[in-house]
Design goal:
6-stranded mixed β-sheet; 17 strands; globular; single chain; 22% strand; alpha/beta
């Protein structure tokens, strides 16, 4: 049925590369988006999923080929984060940027759009004063207010709690326009996906599949298995031919000429070997060492959070984290979780105190701990001056950070690669305390079981915030702190 719908956007023989052609993303590939379909872009971290969005939005231009958009088609994008330079704007001011002319009924339109997302927001409130989860809804509303025919969504479940994800799924199931989603949340994708655009990092082609997300995954895995078997047979045939060449070349006359002919055929066969995909390549198993510390690592005496009326409230707590202790903070969106975690990173006030000589490492969902202008290799060396290049490269390789990636500035990494860089830095720094704010955001789902296994074996103290329920269930010995109950 989907194949009968009209194509509203087409990539025709499209080629694009970064770094003066050295980092190829697309190589003469063609695909289309059809009206009223909901499609996922799938591919390994760094394959170029977000680049596809930038090309569609006109933020990047193809090196070769064309992007053909049907006349009258409007496109809008719900981005992962609000740009930092826009944070001082109010909701009204940010949304008004989408207008071509004054609209005196615009306040009502904003309110109606947000109501579709089960969200109400004061229109004169600055964006910076909303929680990450609330900002995620505002980002989607900002796209919807433009009434797009094609809606692009980049990691829309990041920062949403379970209720927020449920509201988003309900909205998408009822939404009757074309939707293209980048997400690592497989369960979320399977609820509404009609098909998949599969970005093959090896061939730089976009392959199109129809079916729900899990069915497409099965199709791709079956194709990979088929390619592996084809290669195995071809390799055996090539080796048999090489053995015969060695025998024939030792003889004279016609046999030697035959060996020469066969050698050319073998070279052609080796060139024709099916290139098996590496998209299911995962990071290596890793561990974060803990240098023993027997005293309390951090003592929490109280928390300051936002009330339902958006007023600051202080509540006493009595929690002492020692070696092996791990807590998960449970609360609804809008309570001020990120602010609290940032305070804990440098905790030396009435609410919390971290012991002296403690190494604290913070996984921030916006990667605020990373200097985007720093070269990746230097960002790894920065955490420990005692390490050799060889030691740093070995750790980096385990997180798929190799070759030119190490020479690039962090800003050029994909969001998933920035997340893996954070974990590589944890390994090198050997922290006593891990503070983790949505540590699965942007990370390919294939890597998450390995990350969970590492964190389960980590012997230091840990404070976690995560809306990824599957990941939370995989973590052991988590003690909950229900701040929503504190707030009442």
């Amino acid at each position: 049925m989907n194949e009968q719908k009209k194509a509203v956007l087409r990539f025709d023989n499209a080629s694009f590369a970064y770094n003066e052609g050295k980092k190829v993303i697309l190589d003469e590939t063609s695909f289309s988006l059809r009206e009223e379909t909901k499609v996922t872009i799938m591919g390994q971290n760094g394959a170029g999923k977000s680049t596809i969005f930038k090309l569609i939005m006109g933020e990047l231009q193809l090196d070769k080929g064309k992007i053909n958009i049907e006349p009258g088609i409007k496109i809008a994008i719900a981005r992962q984060v609000i740009p930092r330079e826009k944070m001082e704007l109010t909701v009204r001011e940010r949304y008004e940027e989408t207008l071509d002319e004054k609209d005196y009924s615009f306040d009502k339109k904003i309110t109606d759009v947000l109501a579709e997302l089960n969200f109400a927001a004061p229109l004169d409130k600055q964006l910076k004063d909303f929680s990450w989860g609330q900002q995620a809804r505002l980002l989607l509303g900002h796209a919807l207010i433009q009434n797009p025919d094609i809606l692009l969504m980049d990691e829309p479940t990041n920062n949403l709690d379970a209720d927020g994800i449920g509201d988003l799924i309900t909205f998408l199931l009822m939404y009757e326009k074309t939707v293209v989603v980048i997400s690592h949340d497989a369960d979320f994708l399977n609820m509404f996906t009609d098909g998949v655009l599969y970005l093959n990092i090896m061939t730089h082609q976009v392959e199109q599949y129809w079916g729900d997300y899990y069915s497409v995954q099965d199709q791709i895995e079956a194709q990979v298995e088929k390619e592996i078997k084809q290669n195995a047979r071809a390799v055996k045939q090539i080796q048999d031919a090489k053995d015969k060449i060695n025998q024939f070349s030792q003889k004279g006359g016609k046999m030697r000429k035959l060996a020469k002919k066969m050698r050319g055929q073998v070279e052609e066969a080796e060139d024709d070997l099916v290139e098996v995909r590496r998209d299911d390549k995962t990071i290596k198993k890793f561990s974060i060492d803990f240098e023993n510390f027997v005293w309390p690592i951090v003592t929490i005496n109280g928390v300051t959070i936002m009330s339902r009326d958006h007023e600051v409230q202080h509540f006493p707590l009595d929690i002492e984290l020692r070696k092996g202790d791990r807590y998960i903070l449970e609360w609804p969106n809008g309570i001020g979780k990120t602010t609290l975690l940032k305070r804990l990173v440098h905790a030396h006030d009435e609410d919390a105190t971290i012991a002296e000589d403690i190494r604290v490492w913070y996984y921030s969902q916006d990667f605020a701990a990373l200097d985007m202008d720093m070269v990746v290799r230097d960002a790894l060396h920065e955490v420990s001056n005692e390490l050799t290049d060889q030691e740093v490269y070995k750790v980096a390789s385990g997180f798929l950070l190799t070759g030119d990636l190490l020479k690039n500035e962090i800003r050029y990494l994909s969001e998933g690669q920035k997340g893996l860089l954070c974990y590589a830095r944890f390994v090198l720094q050997k922290p006593h305390l891990l503070i983790m704010d949505e540590p699965t955001n942007h990370i390919n789902f294939r890597h998450l079981p390995i990350i969970a296994e590492c964190l389960n074996q980590y012997q230091g103290a840990m404070i976690l915030v995560s809306h990824d329920q599957e990941f939370v269930r995989s973590m052991k010995n988590l003690q909950p702190i229900d701040l929503g109950r504190l707030r009442g």
